[in-house]
């Protein structure tokens, strides 16, 4: 039995979980999230808890058991607390500025790079080199942060670029001088 999948998920006050067939709808103070559970796995609500069960010990069922439980738990955490991911812009002349709901980066290119916030995601600028990506969907927050980081990844020689908050960039020695 999956050590993660067999654990019940407690439903906090102010959150409702509705299971209809393979669809799970989680509604809370920050919004609502919908999840479609993969076919052999079943979810049910009993006594203020969500239980995830699998019908057999097939390889696919075992793989999806813990995953499904974690996805439902992530949705419950998302509608109560939300998720945030911090980004830092490092480099001389590199900066970020808020432009309405979007943000504009100056990253050493010949043009500024504008990033629009996807639906359900909030981009907040602190100072001129810190950016916070927040929302209720963990996957969307992580994907948005990764796409922003992809614009200019931190390079190993000077460490310049967009990095996650607290990320350690391994530095390389440059060319040996004469």
TrEMBL record:
* Residue span(s) of domain Large ribosomal subunit protein uL6 alpha-beta: 11-82, 90-164
| SUPFAM superfamilies in the cross-refs | Ribosomal protein L6
Top-rank taxon of the source lineage equals: Bacteria
Q: Do you know which Pfam families this protein is assigned to?
A: Ribosomal_L6
Which InterPro entries would you find in this protein's record? Ribosomal_uL6-like, Ribosomal_uL6-like_a/b-dom_sf, Ribosomal_uL6_a/b-dom, Ribosomal_uL6_bac-type, Ribosomal_uL6_CS
Keyword list, A-Z: Ribonucleoprotein, Ribosomal protein, RNA-binding, rRNA-binding
Any one of the GO CC terms? ribosome
Give the protein's biological function. Answer: This protein binds to the 23S rRNA, and is important in its secondary structure. It is located near the subunit interface in the base of the L7/L12 stalk, and near the tRNA binding site of the peptidyltransferase center.
Assembly and partners are described as: Part of the 50S ribosomal subunit.
Q: What is the similarity comment for this entry?
A: Belongs to the universal ribosomal protein uL6 family.
Q: Which PANTHER family match?
A: 60S/50S RIBOSOMAL PROTEIN L6/L9 (PTHR11655), LARGE RIBOSOMAL SUBUNIT PROTEIN UL6M (PTHR11655:SF14)
Q: What is this protein called?
A: Large ribosomal subunit protein uL6
Organism of origin is Microbacterium plantarum
Please state the gene responsible for encoding this protein. rplF
